[in-house]
Amino acid sequence: MNPYYPKINFVLDKEHDRDTIKMFEFSESALGSTLAFINKPEFDGIRVALASAFLDDFYKKFGKEMADDLQNTKVRWDKVGGYFFKEVDKIFGNYPWPAGDYTGYISVWRRNPRWISGRAFNFSFVRSWIKNPPNPVKTIAHEMLHFVTYDYLDSTYANNTKPRVFVQYYGCP
Predict the structure, then answer these.
(1) pLDDT tens-digit map of 7-45
(2) Which helix (H) or strand (E) holds 114?
(3) What are residue 5's phi and psi, to 5 degrees?
(4) For a Cys-Cys bond, which of 35, 75, 130, 157 suits 31, CB 3.0-4.6 Å?
C-alpha cells in the first residue's frame, strides 16, 4: 500500500478563471456558445474586457451556486478518492505519488487544463441548466492520473528520451 495519497485543496478563484481564459487565447471551445462572438474581428482590442466583464457578472450571479457545487464536489471526491488511489496503486505497482500540495480549481470555462509542476488543475462548474453536464469527479480522477503518469514516465524513462519529451507530450508545464 502506498504510504502517501495526495489531498486535494478545492478552490473557487475568479482571478484564476480570468488567467485561464487568457491562457486559451479565448478559444471557442473554452468560451462556449455564450461568448464565442467575442472572437469576431470587430472585438479585437476589447476581447479581454468583454471576457472579464462576463466573468465578473457570472460570479456575481452564480458565485453561491459555484461555491455549493465546489463543496458538493469535495464531498463526492472524499467518498471515492481512497478507492481511486488504491486502483491507481494497482495500475502503477504502488508507484509513489508526486509529493506536494494539489489544487483543484472549479471553473466557469469548459476547458480543464493542468499545471504539472504546480500540481493544479481545473474542473468545470456543473451548471444546473445544462443537459448532461460534465461529472467533476471523473474530471478530477482524469486530471490526477496525469500527475502520476507523467511522474512515472519521466522517472522511469528520463534517461532514454529527449529532455522534457513527456512535458511536450502532455502539452503543459
Answers:
(1) 999 999 999 988 887 765 555 655 565 666 666 678 777
(2) strand 114-115
(3) -120, 135
(4) 35
Give the chain's radius of gyration (CA, Å): 18
3-state secondary structure 39-100: HCHHHCCCHHHHHHHHHHHHHHHHHHHHHHHHHHHHHHHHHHHHHHHHHHHHHHCCCCCCCC
Q: What is the pTM of this model?
A: 0.84
Residue 141, phi-psi category: left (phi > 0), alpha (psi -120 to 50), beta (remainder): alpha
Report which residue type is found at 152.
Y
Question: Can you tell me the distance from the alpha carbon of 92 to that of 42, in angstroms, rounded to the nearest whole number?
Answer: 51
- How many other C-beta atoms can be found within 10 angstroms of the C-beta atom of residue 125? 24
